[in-house]
Amino acid sequence: MHLIREIERHPPPDSDCFPGTREGVLKGITDWADSPVLFNAGAPHIYWTHGYVGCGKSSISQAVSQKYGQKGRLLASFFFYRNSGDRSRMARFAETLAGQMVAAVPATGSFIKAAVKAEPALLTRGVSLATQLERLVYRPFSAAVKRGLIFKTLLRGPFLVVIDGLDECEDKEEVKEFIQHLLDYFKQHPSTPLRFFITSRVERHIKEYLKADGVQLDDLVAHGSDDDILTFLETSFSHRAKEDDVIAAYVQGHGQWPTRNDMKTLVHHIGGSFIFASALFKYIVGPLDDGLIPMTRLPLTLDMNPGLDGLYTYTLAKSQRLPHFSDVISTIALVFEPLPIAGIAELLGIETFEHSFVNLFQFKGLRNFLD
């Protein structure tokens, strides 16, 4: 009998932490995750990192998931992603966590099977999210702990559940139900060797829960990221110079590019957003169908209004001369769920190999806009 289905969960595009960045943030998280729970009931079970779009929350979640997956202490992870079916809803949230938990801690499987046998409706929408989490995740895990079935692993530290992008879940009432039940559960069971790492933006339906007892808050914006942005830019431009003959020739004839002052200005212009830094770098180095070389595009980026809006406005304005522009942009605005490039072409009756259509999507800013 098939009891638990797992969703294959891929993190959002370009979500890995860039090497050498976010080291201080990650150390704070690992210090919390590695501190004991069984003999330290006062330690917070929930670590909540919050910040605006593009400041690196998903990158950090991915790094934490990989680290504790390698340690054998990642119980489960769920990366919410807006407008992505099951990944943007709570419909299979508890079931997915349970399925991953069985893979990480096989000893919990028998307890889950017993729960489903006693209450078959657990795998349907006929019961509340709180009941599903209680019966399919929290109780089976606690039962395995009490029977000493995972004692050796717990000697290395508590297990971890990673929940990324909670604000991107469309079921706001169930998000509130999940948070409230999680807080209540750990209040009643303070010695449970289980921790939740959660990231989100601070939206209205989430804000009221952030300052609750048992939650350790971390404002990602408060961590100065200019040094990390500089590391990303320096490394990225250095690698690109080895691959791009135009940049290599310019450096040979004129010296370092971008200059230190260029880098300083870029970092200030970016304002701490890794999404903006990545999009801006891709725009500068091309290749684009605008006839400009990277050295010409660099000063143009500094004349744009700060933020992604300025980059998108410039990119879309340059794209308007291309055939199909209005049709493609209108389609993007009107479809209920994102479509791949091939899907847009099929919907509009455009051949994907058609030169003008391909050129439209060669604009890196437009690609990032579509993502």
UniProtKB/TrEMBL annotation:
<protein>
    <recommendedName>
        <fullName>Nephrocystin 3-like N-terminal domain-containing protein</fullName>
    </recommendedName>
</protein>
<feature type="domain" description="Nephrocystin 3-like N-terminal">
    <location>
        <begin position="41"/>
        <end position="201"/>
    </location>
</feature>
<dbReference type="Pfam" id="PF24883">
    <property type="entry name" value="NPHP3_N"/>
</dbReference>
<keyword id="KW-0677">Repeat</keyword>
<dbReference type="InterPro" id="IPR027417">
    <property type="entry name" value="P-loop_NTPase"/>
</dbReference>
<dbReference type="InterPro" id="IPR056884">
    <property type="entry name" value="NPHP3-like_N"/>
</dbReference>
